[in-house]
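The authors assume throughout that readers already know how a fold can be written as discrete tokens. What matters is that the chain and its backbone geometry are given together, residue for residue. A single example would do more here than another paragraph of explanation. For illustration, here is how one protein appears when written out as sequence plus structure tokens.
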Amino acid sequence: MNVFLTGASGYIGGSVAAALRSAGHAVRGLVRSPKKAEQVRALGIEPVLGTLDDGRLLADAVLASDAVVHAADADHRAAVDAMLAALAGSGKPFIHTSGSSIVGDQAWGEATEKIYEDETPFVPGPGRAARVAVNQRVLAAAGDGVRAVVISPSLIYGSGRGAHRESIQVPRLTALAKKYGVARHVGRGENCWANVHIDDLVDLYLRALDQAPAGASYYAENGECAMRVLAEAISRALGYGGRTQGMSKDEAIAEFGAGPAAYTYGSNSRVRATRARRELGWAPRHDALLESIAL
């Protein structure tokens, strides 16, 4: 199978591309610079030099492919529109990467009892409304003859297999702990996030490419933990004895930026990947997030 993949030099995209190559598939990957082109070429990926703003290039790339994995900017509506328009009536799979922050609640470190399964309805916060609209656009393409699928990963951890091997949230929290000499969390840190290992997430992508029906939407998770508990684990790993310290809303925004502070580090995202387990036979194999933290 010939697969076109955006985000080929990224953490998710590069890991999916590596797994596709290992499975014997040919991969063409969108990259933004000659340097990144060399990085992905070294991994056996044929680079396609361009950006998500190059609608004609994207259309040509998906038309020349058997399947598409969109693992770049989850909010780039124009790129999604360009690729889906080119794929209309083809029956080809289009796997779109979103994220479980779509259910983020801006709790600023407080807990919630709300848990979301794949079909649980929700109203997104203002910072995620546009992303949810993109997801809906993708799923609607099932009615246009595209095997369109959305995957929404939770907090991802583990070493990637592509050019970019490091996740985002845990390394950022670790760097913050080193900066202050104490692990930090937003508010009381009682807010809880589901999580998933990168290798298990990649397995879900490959299963979705092979089996997922048009219009399917999947969360990806294998457990959850509160941010304060995660901070305690980072503190112990750094030799700080499990000591943590809360941040105010303003401090969190200053450290992470407004969007990540509200919808990731300060929010709850308690999702359950029931549909992937039931429909695709997805069975995560890796240790839980806390067991993986050894710095």
